[in-house]
Amino acid sequence: MKKLLVILGILFFSCAKESENNPIDFALNADIEKIQSVMNQLKAYEVQIMVTDASGTDFRFQVNDSNYFYPASSVKFPVALLALEKANRIREIDSQTEFIIQDDSLKTTIQNEVQKIFAVSDNEAYNRLFEFLGQDEIHQGLLEKNLLSARISHRVGTENADTIVSKAITFFKNDSVVFHQEAKSNQPIKKLNLNKTLKGKGFYQNDSLISQPMDFSKKNYLPISTLHELMKRVQFPEKYSKKEQFQLAKNDRDFLLKVMHETPKQQGFDDAEYYDSYVKFFLFGDSEVTIPEHIKIYNKVGYAYGYLTDCAYIVDELNDISFVITATIHVNKNQIFNDDTYEYETIGIPFLAELGRQVHQFYLEKK
After folding, report:
1. Angle between helices 110-120 and 123-144 (to 10 degrees)
2. Helices 224-235 and 250-261: angle between axes, nearest 10 degrees
3. How far is it, in rounded angstroms, from Cα 198 to Cα 212?
4. Distance (Å, rounded) from C-alpha 294 to C-alpha 229?
5. What is the rounded CA–CA span in Å between residue 183 and residue 194?
6. What is the reported pLDDT for 19?
7. Are 309 and 71 within 8 A, CB to CB?
8. Would you kindly state where each structural domain of the chain is located, as residue ranges?
């Protein structure tokens, strides 16, 4: 009996010590309903989490690149980076050169569309940059940077989202054409070789319920580990080889960092519709309070089909705390897709907001 008590004491001490040194364990052990309601049914919610502290130490929870989850608008993050990089590479243009996409009515710039992506997660902005790049260039660009697991194959919120033909694009300076990119065909989209690409027990299609799992095998995929790496390469490029860095002009990188952390209101969007935490889930996602000036959240979220994902670099300037955090959760209790019945507001966003607060609290207590 005495030996058993000693073993139990060692196990308890080890668990406590692990929680004391691990921000994710600290957060997930918090005796708070927003956390424990998810932890009590963990398998159903498909949670994956990564945290990197200021020293560069990584912490992971259930991260598995082989298990599929739908990344939604988080795919706009790498596309924005690759579009800025491509604009820097083409001699005749830059990110502020006006362009127009074939069959589009808006003349705009790469920077304008990047801003809309981060400020309000604008779908049309992403689709324009997607046309500028095309599936093959996106794949090759990530591959060259050793980001191997991602697959970005379709546009969002539009018909024929997965067509493999990228539209023509024309750039102008003073109303004169300075660069024209012809329409181009990309490689056919192949099925993903991943676990769990068949989801749920039914989905709606053209207002009809199809009573079989929904097939995600030809949709976008951006795993937690790749999203997390993208944020680290933007924030800490000096820690990577030149080949692994995004080759951005200095003014583009400064612009990118600015629009990644500023609130919609700070960027000129209507604050009645786009409150501070409109596309910032960690820490403040479950409220519409004004984010304090000393908290900077550089991030990109995604939400669709019941999946909620956020990837953020959080800086608390007042307390000298910073960390990178990426997480995903799936909230689709009835397991039916396209019925607009997801537990975003009741479970998903409260969980991510509290997760961010608890990780922040962990580093506060460390201080």
Report:
1. 100
2. 120
3. 9
4. 25
5. 31
6. 64
7. yes
8. 23-366
Dihedral Cα 197, 81, 311, 265, nearest 10 deg: -120
End-to-end CA distance of the chain: 40
Q: Decide if 68 contacts 221 (C-beta within 8 A).
A: yes
DSSP 8-class letter at 298:
E
CB crowding 159-184: b at 16 or more within 10 Å, else e: eeeeeeebbebbbbeeeeebbebeee
Q: Cα-Cα-Cα-Cα dihedral of 350, 266, 228, 148, to 10°?
A: 120
Q: Which two tokens stand for residue 332?
A: 């689709």
pLDDT at 2 over 80: no
Give the pair of three-digit tokens for residue 322.
């910073």
Find the helix packing angle between 250-261 and 76-89, rounded to 10°: 160
pLDDT at 11 over 80: no
Rounded alpha-carbon distances, angstroms, from residue 17 to 4, 12, 26: 20, 8, 10
Task: Walk across the sheet containing 202-205 and list its strands.
Answer: 208-210, 202-205, 336-337
Burial of 131 per CB tally in 10 Å (0-12, 13-18, 19+):
buried
Q: Which helix (DSSP H) or strand (DSSP E) does residue 325 occupy? A: strand 321-330
Residues in contact with 91: Cβ distance below 8 Å, sequence separation at least 6, in sequence order: none
Answer yes or no: are the C-beta atoms of 60 and 27 closer than 8 Å: no
Largest CA distance in the chain: 87
- The pLDDT, as a whole number, for residue 326 is 98
Report the alpha-carbon angle 297-310-221, nearest 5: 140
What six digits make up the tokens of 189?
A: 């989209």
Structure tokens belonging to residue 112: 């304008």
In this predicted structure, the answer to whether residue 3 has a pLDDT above a threshold of 60 is: no
pTM, rounded to two decimals: 0.93
The CB-side HSE value for 259 (13 A sphere, CA atoms) comes to: 23
In this prediction, residues 334-342 reach a mean pLDDT of 97
CA neighbor of 350 nearest in space, from 277, 299, 291, 300: 277
Which superfamily does 23-366 belong to? DD-peptidase/beta-lactamase superfamily (3.40.710.10)
